């Protein structure tokens, strides 16, 4: 199938804003190409694998947000509307960069090649390795491997927020816990929880394509006896309770569902959340505390924050 690929030039600060705005306008998926997501080989910090320095040299200086649209008569109107939207955003948010756009026609196979250039095995936590199927990797003793081939906009694990969630799950899971993963995307956090010893995991996402991809990844990692993937909006149709809830989603969503979430957390249970830009960390903290959670740990990486809170 042919797709129209729209590429927006932005910055790390603007990447999520651009990605969300493209999805709102009907993109079938997005992918963020950001040098900041690839660790500097000269400055290893313990959880990333050392990589070829040429990989960084080949990446663009701008952060590029790729989005794929089905071709049709409506795309021209969509592009004109979006260009006007970006012009306004540029004046209001100079920190988002030029917000210039490029377009091209690509096949299904072409967009996956963008990922294959940069997507290499890496340590998402101390002993949790994320590996695409086409790469070889020799694990260290105690390593657990998630095999994950990227899908459109569903999460490959390279982002700081995903890494923090996996590290915090690694610290929290002792074995046998029931986990709920809200906004599962690719299923990476649900799979990580299963490999870390969770007794059961319920993974929920509102996007039917994300649900399909997550189910495929769950089967690929042989944890389908532990992980159930369910389509739904947050916890609207979830009656289960859990020992740990994990959510790697945007700040507004965390703020809005912190109060209804607490009834799903068992006594002494935990809520691990990220996807929070540092500028909104205090706002999220206040919402969690107002909902009845106690902040047990706060962590930051780059421009992002994560919290562990408990009942």
Q: How do you describe this structure in short?
A:
This protein is α/β, with parallel strands linked by helices and 311 residues long. It has helices at 12-24, 53-58, 74-92, 108-118, 160-172, 188-195, 208-220, 251-261, 281-291, and strands spanning 2-10, 29-33, 63-69, 101-107, 122-125, 128-131, 144-147, 178-182, 200-205, 227-231, 242-248, 265-277, 294-301, 304-310.
What is the level-2 CATH architecture name of the largest domain?
3-Layer(aba) Sandwich
SSE order in H/E notation? EHEHEHEHEEEHEHEHEEHEHEE
Structural class: alpha/beta
Q: How is the CATH topology of the largest domain named?
A: Rossmann fold
> In total, how many domains does the architecture comprise?
2
Q: Please give the CATH class of the largest domain.
A: Alpha Beta
- The CATH homologous superfamily of the largest domain corresponds to Vaccinia Virus protein VP39
Main sheet, how many strands, which sense, barrel? 7 strands, mixed
Helix content: 25-40%
Shape: globular
Task: Give the integer mean of the pLDDT values.
Answer: 84
Count of helical regions: 9
